[in-house]
Amino acid sequence: LVMGPYVRRILCDELGAPANSAVNCVPLEDFGGQHPDPNLTYATSLLEAMKGGEYGFGAAFDGDGDRNMILGRNGFFVNPSDSVAVIAANVSCIPYFQKTGIRGFARSMPTSTALDRVGKVMKIPVYETPTGWKFFGNLMDAGKCSLCGEESFGTGSDYIREKDGLWAVLAWLSIIAAQKRSVEEIVKNHWARFGRNYYCRFDYEDIDSRTAFYLMRDLEAVITERSFINQQFAVGNHNYTVEKSENFEYTDPVDGIVTRNQGLRLIFTDDSRLIFRLSGTGSLGSTIRIYAESYERDTSRIDRDAQVVLGPLIAIALKLSQIHDRTGRRGPTVIT
């Protein structure tokens, strides 16, 4: 973990955190036999430590420190889509933005639209880009973006033109210090103000590349039929009507370059979304990612279990893609 020495120097030496609060900070080529991704699936030791209630703030980084996961007391998980939205809504608490102001926000297309709702209230433009940090870099170079994030646990600002997990943690600590609230209180206050974007990603890894290609090709043919618009799906007591369906493409507002085939997405009339993306089409197989998102404005319904809320949408995604039948899988490899 090359990030370890930076964590010790900044959080422990400079800011006074106890030395034993920095864990797994010795750089090792094999990451100590652990998986480097900072999510609930792989950062289980941190999650268990936070569940005990002794600590009020926890963070995990990947090997080079560009990605981050934020946890609150009792293991309260901050979805990375919510994390960037919370930072955006509280830029006034962060010294860097107090000096520079805000030019714009940006998120990748699969990232939840929580950031869009902040931008709308703050009257700050929000750019929706394909997955890949280079698209954010273009916006930053042109002075259009000050804060950006991806659902894959990446957050960054224009001071470096890259994602920086430790910067995101410092931003969170600044917000906590200014508001004198817990992580959970900050997030729930954010939901009460802007509504909650229930969100989840399912990864089906190591799928035969040929199978994955044809699955996505056939799914695209279904959702891009003109008759698919306004189609209704009923799951239990839930009814969803398709408002828009497409293979996402992006026209860069800086250089005009068009990037196509960036993921299949369905947008429903209630602002729910389903997204399907194919990645890793190499010799080791492919990964199909399914993203489900549902927006809730009713403050009495913003504290429910995300898996329960998103269940009907996930059922639609499985039915449309037929991913279990076509891959022989019973479920995803990783859920975040």
CATH topology heading of the largest domain: TATA-Binding Protein
How do the helices and strands follow one another from N- to C-terminus? HHEEEHHEHEHEEEHHEHEEEEEEEHHE
**How many structural domains can be distinguished in the coordinates?**
3
> Gyration radius, to the nearest Å?
20 Å
* CATH class membership of the largest domain: Alpha Beta
Q: Classify the secondary structure makeup into a structural class.
A: alpha+beta
Portion of residues within helices: 25-40%
Nearest-integer average pLDDT: 95
CATH superfamily of the largest domain: Alpha-D-phosphohexomutase, C-terminal domain
Please give the order of strands in the largest beta sheet: 10-11-14-15-16-9-17
- Total of DSSP H or I helical runs spanning 4+ residues: 11
Oligomer: single chain
**What is the total tally of β strands?**
17
What kind of sheet is the major sheet? 7 strands, antiparallel
Low-confidence stretches: none
The general outline is: globular
Strand content: 25-35%
Using the 3D structure, state the CATH architecture of the largest domain: 2-Layer Sandwich
Topology at a glance:
Elements lengths: L3 H11 L29 H8 L5 E5 L6 E5 L3 E3 L1 H10 L5 H6 L4 E4 L5 H9 L3 E4 L3 H9 L5 E4 L3 E4 L4 E2 L1 H15 L3 H12 L1 E12 L1 H15 L8 E4 L2 E10 L2 E2 L6 E2 L4 E5 L4 E10 L2 E12 L9 H16 L1 H5 L6 E2 L1
Parallel strand pairs: 4-5, 4-6
Antiparallel strand pairs: 1-2, 2-3, 6-7, 7-8, 9-16, 9-17, 10-11, 11-14, 12-13, 14-15, 15-16
